[in-house]
Amino acid sequence: MPNVPSINLADLSPNDFTDQELDLPYHLAHFKQFADAVLLDGPDRGFINISVWRRPQDNVPHNARIMENCLALIFFYCTNRPWNVYYNHPAIKERLEAALIFWCNNQSPDGQFSEYGSNKWNLAATAFATKFMGQGLQLLHNNPTIDPDLHKRVIETVRKALYATFTDEAFQTHGKSFTNQYANAWGGALAYLNLYPDPEIESLLDQRLEESLTNFQSPVGYFYEKDGPDWGYFFGTHHSDIHAAWHYTHNTDRAKYFIEKEQRWYDWLSYNAVREPDHSGFTLNRAIETRQKTTFLEEYRTNLGGPELKTSGNLHTTALGTHADLARAFGRTTSDCEQDTQDARKRLEANWPNVPTLAIGEFWAYTPYTFLHRTHIEWNPSTEQKETTTAQLPYIARDHFTHQRADNRHPVVFTYIRRPTYYAAFTTGHILSPQQRYGLGLLFHPQIGTVLQSQTNTTDAAWGTLFNDTLYETNNLQAQFQINNTPITPQTGAHDLSNRDLEITYPLGENGHKTARFTNTTIEVTVQHTGTFTEIIPLLKKSSDTLQTNTNQLTLKRDNVTLTIASNSPITTQETEYISGNNIVVTAQINAKDNLAYTIKFS
Hints:
The protein has helices at about 25-35, 70-80, 90-105, 125-140, 150-165, 170-175, 180, 185-195, 200-215, 230-250, 255-270, 335-350, 370, 385-390, 395, and strands at about 115, 120, 275, 280-285, 295-300, 400-405, 410-420, 420-430, 440-445, 450-455, 465, 470, 480-485, 485-490, 495, 500-505, 510-520, 520-540, 545-550, 555-560, 560-565, 570-580, 585-600. By secondary structure, it is α+β, with helices and mostly antiparallel strands. It folds into two domains: about 10-385, Glycosyltransferase (Alpha/alpha barrel), CATH 1.50.10; about 400-600, Beta-galactosidase, Chain A, domain 5 (Distorted Sandwich). Strands 11, 12, 13, 14, 16, 17, 18, 19, 20, 21, 22 and 23 form a twelve-stranded antiparallel beta sheet that branches.
């Protein structure tokens, strides 16, 4: 039985790695430990028995998500580079074949895979398998061979998984609510079809792509995650799904599906991510997120040259920026990427031959995503393209509008108010996830940036009215809208409204009601509520800001602009543990009884 050879990075040089390979020394250094974890004996022969991808408690043989890391074995076995001692190595071939057999054996007769229990088949395990193994088939094609019969079996296993994803009605239903899972099959199918023409799979793919334009994406613009919007899943998994698919469709008739999806999504993002004037990044209207927790999008990239960690907090450039103009505002420029590469190489050279240790038990310590997109088409905007598009972001391009978006699957309404001195985001309707917080989610000033951001899954740092330890804004807000005393009925999709004064009113359980009034210069909030309650206002404070309270008034001074909150009840402040970008979250708290009125104003 051949042994997996050791690697000593000291025998190599950073110059042996191209600019596109600067993250690989880490993976190369730890590949022996990873490959040696493939079981070669016993009933679970072929299982990757090391917890470096996903949670430790989920690193069990029935979980097909663990076996997505077959792609790492395939990559090193098939990649012919001077630094890769594992290329076409018999020890890697033996472990790869064992892992592939184990993976194939874990598939159900009708093509599904399990994740959270033996024979508990689900969409995620099945669809993700197609994306990662679809790329695996690309690498195995015309490269060092594996057993021919096994190769044919892997191809058939991918096909069965695609067929199950596209035809199982339970998968269709689940995919409409958790679209990032289903969308893996787009790239998986296209990678498979690129090598193996298959009219049946091709027809099913096209049918599901057409349906997905309405089934997977809200008329508001977001892709459904737990039936609502989620930043982390788009910037992570869904971004990957579209990236993989675009590689095979950008010059085909299918390109239109992905262009339309991206254009609608970035239009939605453009109202919910505000660029900070110091260019540190974008602050998100985050409290509407349904599943993950993403506070801020950093302009710079981190971690080049180290382990591939989860990057939902960093900007992602989409190759579809050639067609979806707004995407360019959120992307890394070509000069940014050149600087990233220079910095990564300098770090690698300064630390050589040391790389970070393999953090066993960490979710992303050795992820198959490292090897998924290496050959996929990339595109970055120029600095001029990025800045031109940034100027077109709605809260920058216009200084006076009221914009509203409403979903048709659930009664959720997103309202965006731009006035000369502020930009605000306000959400009402049905709560879709316990971690969501509605009401005033974001408040931005064009010169000094964001001063208020409601924090996901909190009661001490989310905007709203607290009564008996319950924040009303964690529940459904059945709001009524008025513009100049004229009622407004939200309409499905995205619409500009009259930009005159807007009032949003909703009940506070059975104890009263609350109104937020947006005028040309102020935000006026009134609360009528039986008994004592506390109003919470989550402010973002930079280290250089001056924050002061004087009984019924709070001022936050940043540069030459002052935010003033004036109330009919005393205001106190409390620093929290939460961070957003370069800011700490400090809450203003107003204790009141029966009624409260306060005004937010910039000067």
